[in-house]
Design brief:
By secondary structure, the protein is of the alpha/beta class. It contains seven helices and ten strands. The chain binds adenosine-5'-diphosphate (ADP) and magnesium ion (MG).
């Protein structure tokens, strides 16, 4: 099997996966984590990938991020750019202030000091942390730390954001607020987002399109457009109805494995 990373031919695709396969290990111990996954994310589209634990969601995201290589198939990113990444753990540098954390990607990009200062201030305002630049991560709540991580990711200025259960460790109320913020930033910056979650309500709250992945091997078994007007509320009947439908599909899938 061959694997290549290419720029999508079409300008109407931000992320393109074609027949992507991932095998971990060899021989009798080999695990087929992903099997022929094809998926296009359009520019400005918000796609949520849902599925049971262990179905290959993180594997798929890591492949798109270039952290690992597919065993087969092609993955393309618009402009060949490095995507922004966010995980459940914010992975901030504990010894650096909030400002300095957000400044890291700007330094790496070689921006001059004055411009970095300006950008950091603007990014911290964007995530509503304008007053917290001098704090260190341990002085902040979990939700605030994820805002810092989001600001640092936005500092990369990439059009594609990959998020792996970024709000999974937060309480429901904090998560709710961060959903609003992410939706606002996504629409202002016209980002393309591939967002992994096992929380179907969160997916229905955020997504333009929900993709459901089966387990062992991970295959796309269902895809649904979510045309609920924005801004949405996670406790609205429309979101609940979509979540119920996806949960039903998920339950059928888990039942198929006799778990
Ligand atoms: P999810 O994020 O949906 O919970 P993962 O992508 O983490 O699922 O894992 C998919 C499958 O691949 C699981 O069966 C997991 O045990 C296996 N897997 C993930 N990473 C590795 C690895 N580095 N080596 C071997 N197996 C792995
Ligand atoms: Mg995972």
């Amino acid at each position: 099997m061959t694997s290549t990373t290419t720029t999508p031919q079409s300008t109407t695709t931000a992320v393109a996966l074609a027949g992507v396969t991932k095998v971990y290990g060899r021989g009798a111990n080999a695990v087929l984590a992903l099997d022929g996954v094809s998926l296009d994310v359009a520019p400005g589209e918000f796609v949520c990938l849902v599925g049971a634990s262990g179905c290959g969601k993180s594997t798929l995201l890591n492949l798109v991020a270039g952290l690992d290589r597919p065993s087969g198939g092609q993955i393309g990113l618009a402009g060949g750019a490095n995507p922004g990444l966010m995980f459940q753990e914010p992975a901030l540098f504990p010894w650096l202030t909030v400002e300095a954390n957000v400044e890291v990607p700007l330094k790496l990009r070689g921006l001059p000091r004055a411009e970095r200062r300006e950008r950091v201030a603007e990014l911290l305002r964007t995530v509503h942390l304008g007053e917290f630049g001098r704090k260190r991560p341990h002085e902040l709540s979990g939700g605030m730390r994820q805002r810092v991580a989001l600001a640092r990711t936005l500092a990369l200025d990439t059009p594609v954001l990959l998020m792996d259960e970024p709000f999974g460790a937060l309480d429901a109320m904090t998560r709710d607020i961060l959903h609003d913020e992410l939706e606002r930033i996504w629409s202002e910056r016209k980002l393309s987002v591939l967002f992994v979650t096992h929380n179907v309500r969160e997916a229905a709250r955020l997504a333009d399109r929900i993709i459901l992945l089966s387990s062992r091997p991970g295959r796309i078994i269902y895809s649904a457009e979510v045309d609920i007007p924005r801004p949405r509320r996670i406790d609205s009947p429309e979101v609940a109805a979509i979540a119920a439908e996806v949960t039903e599909r998920l339950r059928t899938e888990v039942g198929r494995h006799g778990q």
